[in-house]
Amino acid sequence: MRATARAQPNIALIKYWGKRDSDRNLPAVGSISVTLEELYTTMHVELDAALDLDELLVNGHSAPSMLPRVARCLDTVLGAGRLRARIISESNFPIAAGLASSASSFAALVVAASGAGGVERTADELAGLAGKASGSAARSLYGGFVELRNDGDEIAVCSILDGAAWPLRIIAAVTSTTPKPVSSGEAMETSRRSSPFYSRWVEEQDMDLSTARDAITVRDFGKLASIAEHNCLKMHSVMWASRPPVVYWNAATIACLERVRQLQADGVAAFFTIDAGPQVKVICLPGDESQVVEALTTTPGVESVLSSGIGAGAALMTAD
Ligand code: 2P0
C-alpha cells in the first residue's frame, strides 16, 4: 500500500510545444530529450483507508495548489474509486524554475502510485500515464537520449541511445527562480491559437527529429548542436509571435547565449537550449565542462549553476 520511486528531469533537445488534443494531453509534435542524472525527485505514495482527503507535502511543505493535478494523476493510475493517499515529494533542485520538475515529479508519481497499488505496468504504459499528467514527464520514464513519438493515437516513447554511450554534460544556468508568468500549457494554447508560425513549427518538426536522431545515433556533436539550437530558437519564435506574446527570457538569458557564442568561437564544443523559462542549459563534451561552468558562473545575472550527466529512467525504490 506504499511505495517510493525516483525520477530525473529531462531536457528537450527537440522540443514539445503544442497539443493536438488538450483533453487527452496529446502533443502536436514528437520530441527528443536527455534524462539527467544528478537531479532527481523522490516520490513516496501511501494509500490509506483512514484518510478522507489526499495529502501532499512538497519539499516539507503542504502544497494544496498542486494537489488537484496530482490527485487527477492518481485517479488515472489507480482508478477514480482509489483510496486516498499521503504523497511526499522531495526534489534536490529548485522546483517550478524551468528545470523540468514536473517531468521528474509526474514520472516518479506514476511509478510510486502503481507500486503502492500493487499494479505491474510496463515502462510504455507508465510513460503513457505520466504523459497524460505532463507531456514531458513521459520521457523521464526512460534513460539516456529519449524520443517521444507522436504518430499513433497514443504516445510512444523509446530510448535512442544510452547515456553511457555518449556521456555529454548538461550545465544549467539559473537566471531567476521567480515563478513563470504563464504556465507552459497555457502558453502552448496561446501559440496554437494565435502564432502565425505555429503551423510551420508543427510541419517542420519531423525533419528536425530525424536530423537529431541521426546525429545522436552516430554521435555527431556539431550536427546535434546545430539542430538543437535551431529547434529551440524556432520554438521561442513561435511564442514571441503569439498574441499576447509569450517571452520567458530575461537579460541574463541573452547574456548566457552570448557567452555560449564566445565559447563556440574559442573552439569549445557546446550548445544551448532554453525551455519554458529563463534558464539556459548548455550541453558540452566532458572535457569542456569546467570551462563552460566558469563561463556561465561569471555571466552577469546568473544566480547559480548546476551540472549533470545523463542518467537512467524512473525507478521504483521500495514497495510494501
Ligand atoms: C519540452 N516543454 O519538450 C518542452 C519545451 C517546455 C519547453 O514540455 O502541459 O510541463 O504538462 O503537457 O510537459 C513543458 O511542458 O507540459 C515542456 P504539459 P509540460 O520539454
Explain the layout of strands and helices.
Elements: E1 2-7, E2 10-14, E3 19-21, E4 26-27, E5 31-35, E6 41-47, E7 55-58, E8 61-62, H1 67-78, E9 85-91, H2 101-116, H3 123-133, E10 145-149, E11 156-161, E12 169-174, H4 184-194, H5 198-217, H6 221-240, H7 251-265, E13 270-273, E14 280-284, H8 289-297, E15 304-308, E16 315-319
Parallel strand pairs: 7-9
Antiparallel strand pairs: 1-6, 1-16, 2-5, 3-4, 5-10, 6-9, 7-8, 10-11, 12-14, 12-15, 13-14
Helix pairs in contact: 1-2, 1-3, 2-3, 5-6, 7-8
Which short descriptors sum up this protein?
single chain, 320 residues, alpha+beta, Ribosomal Protein S5, domain 2, Alpha-Beta Plaits, 2 domains, 6-stranded mixed sheet, 4-stranded antiparallel sheet, 24% strand, binds ligand 2P0
Low-pLDDT runs of 5+ residues are none
> What percentage of amino acids are in beta strands?
15-25%
Instruction: Compute the separation of the termini in Å.
Output: 6 Å
Question: Structural class, from helix and strand content?
Answer: alpha+beta
Name the helix and strand elements from N-terminus to C-terminus, one letter apiece. EEEEEEEEHEHHEEEHHHHEEHEE
The largest β sheet comes out as:
6 strands, mixed
Question: How many separate helices?
Answer: 8
